[in-house]
Design goal:
The complex is a heterodimer of chains A (about 250) and B (about 475). Chain A is of the alpha/beta class. Chain A has 8 helices and 12 strands. The longest helix of chain A has 15 residues, at about 95-110. In chain B, β3 (about 115) and β4 form a beta hairpin. The chains are: A alpha/beta (about 250), B alpha/beta (about 475).
Chain lengths: ~250, ~475
Amino acid sequence: MLEIKNLHVSVEGKEILSGLDLTVNAGEVHAIMGPNGTGKSTLASVIAGNDAYEVTSGEIIYQGKNLLDLSIEDRAREGFFLGFQYPVEIPGVSMTNFMRTAIDEIREYRGQKPLTAGEFLKYMKEKKELVEMHAKLNNRSVNQGFSGGEKKKNEIFQMAMLEPTLSFLDETDSGLDIDALRIVAKGVTALKSDKNATVVITHYQRLLDYIVPDFVHVMYDGKIVKTGDRALALELEEKGYDWIKEELEAKK
Amino acid sequence: MSKANEIAINLKQNLLSKIETRIKVNADNEGAYLSKMRKKAMEEFDKLGFPTIKLESWRKTNLKTFLERDYNIEAINKPLNSKEADTTLMCESNKYDTDLYTQFNGQWMKGAEGVTTYENGTIVCPMSIAIIAFPDLIEAHLGKYATDSNNALTALNTADFSEGYFVYVPDNIEHNRSLQMVNLIDSKDGIFANMRNLVIVGKNSKLRMLHCDDSVSNNTSFINNITEISIADGAKLDFYKLQNKDNESAVISSTFVKQGADSNFASNTIILNGGLVKNDTKVILNGRGANTDVIGLYLMDGHQFVDNHVHITHAVSNCTSKQLFKGIVDEFARSVFNGHTLVAKDAQQTIAYQNNNNIQLTKTSKIDTNPFLEIYADDVKCSHGATVGQLDTAALFYIKQRGICERNAKMLLMLAFVGEVIDKIELPNLRASMAELVGKRLKGELSSCDQCSITCAEPDKPIQFEIDMSKV
């Protein structure tokens, strides 16, 4: 589904990703871990199309298409979703209108008939229940006045609404208490199918108790340096990242 | 001397001789009070001449290119031909649910050409009739509020006006029909006109008005419009102004308001288009407990120019005022905001708030903002602020990541930005229509028929952004 080959990315001349490779197939859950500042969030932003970053070489192939050729919105319409680490507050834009506009455009892109207002609201209600989103959204502005936990839940709610094929969740667990974490994880699990894939970027093993990954990757210095299964996450939790650094040093 | 300059000088001379003749001819009709006022104003205009950018209050607003055009100063007195009358009569029904009074190229349309007296005693009529029919009210109010004697355009208006609207609400009347006063210009004659309106709201009365400055085709015109408003103790006036003028039009629209104790004035000005638009709103809070809200919205592009000047005087204690203007300025357009709140020495316990927020969409557009407080009392709560910024790039990225195209992402943010002003419109019909007009304007879909606010055609496909929850 997703194939990233030898990806190099820099911002203002400074290289942040330096030869990253990653393959994600349908039905899989991946976790990307690693110390701060190793480029995890940059990877997510670059896939989404954030033009603050410059791709200097390498390629990102998504469902046979060169993702780097597509606009931000077309990547989303092709089924890519980014759960933001810091969801943006947009005063004055209601959640309902935001989602309505998004779904209208995505359906149009895919050649589907637009939903009527009634169908849309029914759909929204179903998705809210699916992700246990109890907050009233109709008249609330996007993320404005939401607590940290609500913002993250709102990301999962949007993911449920847009039914993406590939989701990157950027530190969706940060700032969540254990109950919110459980709800977020439950939502992600509920949305999982053999047609889609999820990549979670996280600092902590904790989330992986709820979202069980098929693969765990460790990022260091702008590339993936180690890949394993869930046991790797547990090992990292226990021993930290130093042993990986030492391993890398030894290889040199 | 350049040809253009010569035209401007001739304009002044032609106006002066027109006024002089008219004063003589009308001396008997208009009464000594008005003749005297006109004569004095004519002398003032002669002395001052048209304002130039050398004057502080006109520093950013250059009338030069609009004055150096060929105008017909008599065109406004030309009776309508029947065909013209018919075009406007098409727009009999209007979606705002208001009582419509339309002035077309300066002439009143059918239904508005005489005196309308409501059962509750409220009167609406052309200014030309009011001068003769209601001399006591005219003498008590006309020229009493538009008193900025150093403003040449005020002087010119007083000296030259022949038409406009007159609205009178007696004491203790809640007038439940909203009045819509339309000043529509569609003429190849190069209309140059001074129009004068007077609104008197009696003690404890309530009135809602929608004032529209419109033009349909790209013909040169220059309209100098003054509205004097008296709001007596305990009275309330909602005054919405909608301006949708073409790029060749200049409109100077000044509003002078005097408020009594515990009175309320809510002014909401929405400027969709205009070659040169200048709105001066001057309010004097003259009785304790009075409140005034002067808010507005401007959306300019191309080479359009808008200047909003708000001057609020807190003359006595315990009054409140709020100014809020929001603007989106695109392409090569320019906007100017001057907010001035004056708190007199004894006006203690004043609460005054002033704000101007702008979104500058292009580097080639220009925004000037000048919020200003002048306070002589020591126990007041006053604040002022101004911002000029761009659309939030983080928000744009977030919206686009959800599959929304750049154009609609910007639209959502712009509609959200202006929503604060539109939401303050109390009439639900009007609020919905304004939201729709503003949406269309931002999408660049404001059709020529919509240019006229009394649009009679079926509205186009509704805008997709809002879901009407009541219809689900």
